[in-house]
């Protein structure tokens, strides 16, 4: 059953550039029964969203998206370099569209595994809170510190402190982002009124940049979805 939202004008954007240096061709690499980028597309479709656009400079990604019925926008190579922020590709994609949208949902292919009800929950919270943007975060469970002059200096704990007594700190897990389109027009993804939606699920650990990350995703896909 799909939730009926007050703000119906959502656009799902999936950026999938070519040229990954650490894991070449990763967006079209097969993860389970579909390529990496296909998991984000299927996730949005399974949650009842139809306004989707893939922006990419990878011909294989664009062809795959069209085959599964998703609109595509050719991402200029000038906006697809290793140092180029994703916001410029998103701005370009929105500028190419005829229709105007109230808010954008960003699904990154490098985070292919997401809890089943997360997307609808996130949109509901976004509307209920009346925020400008929303991002997903997860609790840090590690004892962190810095190293100076070959000495480890604790940052979020005192030596000997139990892990369960750590001060609650959270990390941006990248599972999804929602932001008003007006923020994108300002070159931003996150606004001052930004809601951190806490996700307590193993899928929040998956962010694929290396071969080891990909192998971990394969294990999680098999273990947590079967």
Question: In terms of topology, how is this protein built?
Answer:
Elements: E1 10-15, E2 30-31, E3 34-35, H1 36-46, E4 52-56, H2 59-67, E5 71-74, H3 86-96, E6 103-106, H4 118-129, E7 133-139, E8 145-148, E9 151-154, E10 170-180, H5 181-185, E11 194-198, H6 211-225
Parallel strand pairs: 1-4, 1-6, 4-5, 7-11
Antiparallel strand pairs: 2-3, 6-10, 7-10, 8-9
Verbal overview:
Helices cover 28% and strands 24% of the residues. It is globular. The protein is α/β, with parallel strands linked by helices. It has six helices and eleven strands. The mean pLDDT is 92. Strands 5-4-1-6-10-7-11 form a seven-stranded mixed beta sheet, with helices on both faces.
Descriptive keywords:
single chain, 226 residues, alpha/beta, seven-stranded mixed beta sheet, two-stranded antiparallel sheet, 6 helices
Précis, in short:
The chain contains six helices and eleven strands. With 226 residues, the protein is an alpha/beta fold.
Category by helix and strand content: alpha/beta
Q: What would the average pLDDT be, to the nearest integer?
A: 92
Q: What general outline do the C-alpha atoms trace? A: globular
Biggest sheet, spatial arrangement of strands: 5-4-1-6-10-7-11
Largest sheet, strands/sense/barrel: 7 strands, mixed
- What is the CA-atom radius of gyration, in angstroms? 19 Å
Counting DSSP E segments of at least 2 residues, the number of strands comes to 11
Share of helix among residues?
A: 25-40%
Number of helices: 6
Strand content range: 15-25%
Low-confidence stretches: none
Distance between the termini: 22 Å
Helix and strand string, N-terminal first? Answer: EEEHEHEHEHEEEEHEH
This entry's quaternary arrangement is single chain
């Amino acid at each position: 059953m799909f939730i009926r939202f007050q703000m119906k004008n959502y656009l799902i954007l999936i950026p999938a550039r070519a040229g990954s240096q650490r894991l070449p061709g990763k967006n079209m690499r097969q993860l389970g029964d579909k390529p990496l980028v296909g998991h984000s597309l299927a996730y949005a479709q399974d949650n009842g969203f139809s306004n989707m656009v893939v922006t990419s400079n990878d011909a294989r990604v664009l062809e795959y998206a069209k085959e599964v019925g998703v609109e595509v926008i050719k991402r200029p190579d000038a906006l697809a370099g290793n140092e180029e922020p994703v916001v410029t590709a998103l701005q370009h994609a929105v500028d190419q569209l005829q229709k105007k949208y109230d808010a954008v949902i960003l699904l990154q292919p490098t985070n292919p595994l997401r809890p089943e009800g997360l997307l609808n929950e996130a949109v509901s919270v976004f509307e209920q809170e009346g925020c400008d943007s929303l991002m997903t975060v997860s609790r840090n469970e590690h004892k962190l510190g810095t190293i100076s002059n070959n000495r480890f200096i604790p940052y979020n704990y005192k030596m000997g402190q139990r892990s369960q007594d750590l001060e609650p700190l959270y990390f941006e897990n990248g599972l999804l982002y929602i932001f008003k389109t007006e923020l994108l027009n300002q070159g931003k993804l996150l606004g001052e009124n930004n809601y951190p939606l806490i996700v307590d699920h193993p899928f929040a650990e998956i962010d694929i940049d290396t071969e080891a990350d990909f192998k971990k995703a394969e294990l999680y896909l098999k273990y947590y979805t079967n």
